[in-house]
Amino acid sequence: MKLSKGLFGDLYLKMVQTRNFEETAARLFVEGKVHGTAHFCIGEEATGVGVCSALEKEDMITQTHRGHNQAIGRGMDLKRMMAEFLGKETGYCKGKGGCMHIADFSVGSLGANGVVGGGIPVATGAALSQKYFKKSNITVCFFGDGATNEGAFHESLNLASVWKLPVLFVCTNNYYGMSTHISKSMNITDIASRAASYGMKGITVDGNDILAIYEETLKAREYILKNGPLFMVLNTYRWMGHSKSDSQVYRTKEEVNEWKLKCPIKRFREYLIKEKIFTEAEIGAFDKKAQDDVAAAVDFANASPEPKIENIFDDVYADGDMRTQKPKNGFVL
Amino acid sequence: MREISYAEAIKEAMSEEMRKDNRIILMGEDVAVYGGAFGVSRGMFEEFGDERVRDTPISELGFTGCAVGAAMTGLIPIVEIMFSDFITLALEQLVNQGAKNRFQFGGQGSVPMVLRAPGGSGTGAAEQHSQSMESWVCNVPGLKVVIPSTPYDAKGLLKSAIYDPNPVVFLEQKLLYRVKGPVPEPGDDYTVPLGKADVKREGRDITIITYGRMVPRCLKVAEKLAAKGTDVEVVDVRSLVPMDKKTLIASAKKTGKVLIVHEACQTGGFGGEIAAVIADSEAFFYLDAPIRRLGGLDVPIPYNPKLEAQVVPTEEKITAAIESLL
What we know:
The complex is a heterodimer of chains A (333) and B (326).
Chain A: H1 5-30, H2 45-53, E1 60-64, H3 68-73, H4 78-85, E2 109-113, H5 119-132, E3 139-144, H6 151-162, E4 167-173, E5 176-177, E6 180-181, H7 182-185, E7 201-206, H8 210-227, E8 230-235, H9 253-260, H10 264-274, H11 280-303, E9 327-328, E10 331-332
Helix pairs in contact in A: 1-2, 1-10, 1-11, 2-8, 4-11
Chain B: E1 3-5, H1 6-20, E2 24-28, H2 44-48, E3 53-55, H3 60-72, E4 76-80, H4 87-99, H5 101-104, E5 114-119, H6 134-138, E6 144-146, H7 151-162, E7 168-173, E8 180-182, E9 198-201, E10 206-210, H8 214-227, E11 232-236, E12 239-241, H9 245-255, E13 258-265, H10 270-279, E14 292-296, H11 305-310, H12 315-325
Helix pairs in contact in B: 1-7, 3-4, 8-12
């Protein structure tokens, strides 16, 4: 176990950066600077940050459209993320992907997906490459509770288990697929038990306990490199609506407030102070840094140019010939 | 030149390149021990083993998506879908993940994969194992689409498709699998580039633009009409996306008359695209007749062999269409 003061600080900072980033993005949305839609993971910060912090440099991840915690956890650059939110040329996707398609191949993020369950088969393919090229690495595949009803989920768990691929399937269970509670969309709401159909181990972890998530991911990584895929369910809750147009008529304020009391950031902050790992002042410094980083990201995004229609055909097709294209960072670029 | 079958030509393309480049793998239902439903990969499992020639579970969406992820991360997967009709099961991964990947992630990566699938009618396999899927995939920016009509083209185009850094849908014609044709010796490392049409027969009086299984059929009609004094030019599109508009337009300009023939249903078929390209080019001013399309009837492929033969362009229908334009 690599529990150090540095790690504790990193986990805390990344969660606060995520919270700040999303609150800021929500405000920009209201101001009309972010268009389209946005899916916020406020309340779920521990999931992506906890899992990604336990990974090695050459591990890979596939993300969801509610995955800013995953992106920041993996070490993506806030500036380029915010620029993508604002549709700017300096964004991760040159302003063409937007907040649902944040990706950074250089840190092993194969991208966020707008399709529920869309990244699950892709993750098995990344894991196939890792196994084929004999790397001691894994691919983490994030998806939500709703995705476990998609064919892509079942086909991919089956394929990964038959081929013993190094995949950690991570279900961020926030109990609702948009407005539909899991009790209405599956008869067995113990989602981890679905792994049994594929001869796979399924575990459930408190999705608001970042240390538990971090430790379970470390263990899972070891297990997967020896035995093949594993399924991990993280029970958590999204505080906000599904997207910007959600009036949230399907749940009660009491339920939301109950979960707000279980805030993963507040909980970790209290732990850090109680265990005397950080002082109030040190925690305050992290909070301030997160705020400053996000503010700098907004400034960067605001100052960045819009993409030009002249370049619209860029990247529809890749040029060149695979005979002469060599992989870079394990990726074909 | 030696003669080998269309199926053998496809296998040679895969095997020759797999010997040279260990990034290339083949995956699909029953491609390994069984050798593929149509026997295309027979012997490859014995040569390359189960790491490189992989039987998949029957889960088109899952294994096509797996190929997308593998292609993003260093492999060059060739995926076989047993019948092109089942591309429908894999469309989400092919279209929303594979095709859009490079564009939506701002050019960070690429998806060098080939999706091979046999299409077309004529085998008595009825509605769900006989359709022609090219229009479905030609409407997706990011995909390339190829349909070879000869063993020579099949081998050369597949080699180009394997090394293309984009997802290429390689639609094979199941009725051509056993047809033999001249192909250079294995040592001759020729390729056929994507995006190049081929004038399969030169003629003066009328142009037929076609592809796939209809190429040999149109050539047959052209030979019969030659005896009657009509000189038909037959142009094989070969690569639908990217399409070699230049060659098609030049032929239309030369003969002044165009008939487009394909097996897929006429409504929304790729023939409409070809017709529009010619109508909207300088060839328009050289046309002496309307551009005519002859596609399949707008019906699913029926089982009864007499019906099945009649719902796609027959020699008689092609001949009648040509005569109506002369």
